[in-house]
Each structure stands twice: as structure tokens, then as C-alpha cells.
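Review session, final week

We close the course with one last complete record, chosen because it touches almost every idea we covered. It is Flp family type IVb pilin, a protein from Variovorax guangxiensis with 59 residues. Go through it on your own first, then we will talk.
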Amino acid sequence: MFKTFLKDESGAQVVEYALIIAVVSIALVVALQLLTANNGGFTNFVARVTTCLTSPTCT
């Protein structure tokens, strides 16, 4: 009975997906903090991206 319990892998995929989602989430938070640290926040970052996408010059 104990051997069959150890061989059961029915929940392994769910745990793997949760770990992948956690790592990606942490990477996104770190990347956003690094991108927004220089110019004073997320609002300025979004404004810069909007300017780059809507105007011919990007600063």
C-alpha cells in the first residue's frame, strides 16, 4: 500500500505548474521594479511606453 502511494503522480503536474507560475510572477515583479526604479514609478514607465508607441520619436 505504501509503495502504491509513492508511485502515485496524479498531483505532480499541478505542483509543477504552480511552481512555474510562481517563478514567472516573481520575475515579472523584479523586472518591473528595475524598469521603473530609474524614472520615478510605474506611471512614468507607462507614459514613456505610450510616447514610444504613439509618436515618431522615443526618448
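Two points worth writing down before the exam:
The chain has a mean pLDDT of 81.
The two ends are 66 Å apart (CA to CA).
Good luck, everyone.
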